[in-house]
Amino acid sequence: MFILDQENWSHVFSLPKEAIPTPFRAVLRGIGQIFFQENALTGSFCAVGIAVSSLPMAAGAIAGSAIGMATARVLRFDQAEVNAGIYSSNATLVGIATLFFFRPGAASIAMLVIGCVAAALVTRLLRALLPVPTFTSPFFLTTWALYFLGPALGAVGVELEGRPVAAGFVEAVAHGISQALFQANVWTGILCIVGIALSDWRHASWAVVGSIVGIMVANYHVTTAARALDPERLIERAFSENIALGLYSYNTILPAIALFRWTRSLMPPLLGILLSVPLTELVPMLGLPALSAPNVVATWLVLTLGFVEERAFDEQAATP
Q1: How far is CA 297 from each of CA 137, 141, 254, 277, 303, rounded to the nearest angstrom?
Q2: What's the predicted TM-score (pTM) here?
Q3: How many CB atoms lie within 10 A of CB 132?
Q4: Looking at per-residue confidence, does 43 or 310 come out higher?
Q5: In whole angstroms, what is the distance from residue 317 CA to residue 310 CA?
Q6: CB of 187 closer than 8 Å to CB of 49
Q7: How far apart, in Å, are the Cα atoms of 236 and each of 97, 270, 281, 288?
């Protein structure tokens, strides 16, 4: 099993333990864990960032994290993991995604609660079964189920409206970061980067690099007339608009951070970024919103390649 170390500067920049009770810290850490930061301050900045863009989705994020944490506590999962936000992060994303795809209402709120409970349970199951880290796989598996079941359960889909398109490169980079939380908002991206940097500046740097490289890679076959599926909404739009909205770069920042945490090297994070972009194009062609599946699959592929490489060279070294 791969073990990822968690070196950061939380002992310098984290909130004082006496300032926030443990359950609330666990909720905020669950939000921070979306970017692999076990830091309540990171979670606070990300929550504020979501609220700047959408108050309902910010409420969904906090409620999702709280439900995931409460589920894990009631079922007596490992207390250290619960307090670290391990069982809250996927539930946080489910809470946001439910209100991203469906309007607030009795059906969608019920789906949110059930989905967040399910995300915590799936997290526990996959952590026991998979030889690699689960990352956000419980989130996209749970959300895919809600996405298809929602209309049958009476949930009303969100009406598609015109979305602002970034006017420049800097805005597109910020959108790539904010889209990890379903927000096409520059201030959301900035607040998230600040929150990550307060925990570990190197992770924040990789998040920015991931977004930049993701945009550059996605541009390799763009023409003025090129159109492609929006990876979130599954509607056709100008390819350049998808890139400007951060829809091809939000899946590149998480592999960058995750693989840097696995090994202090440039190549694995860059390879994860490169793999994530074509996967982001592929998943919507299957009739599924991409969510975080591309970055998880890309990271798993790089980790598997590293494992195979390690075994191959170990066997060569052992051969006389």
Answers
A1: 9, 13, 11, 11, 10
A2: 0.90
A3: 17
A4: 43
A5: 11
A6: yes
A7: 20, 28, 12, 14
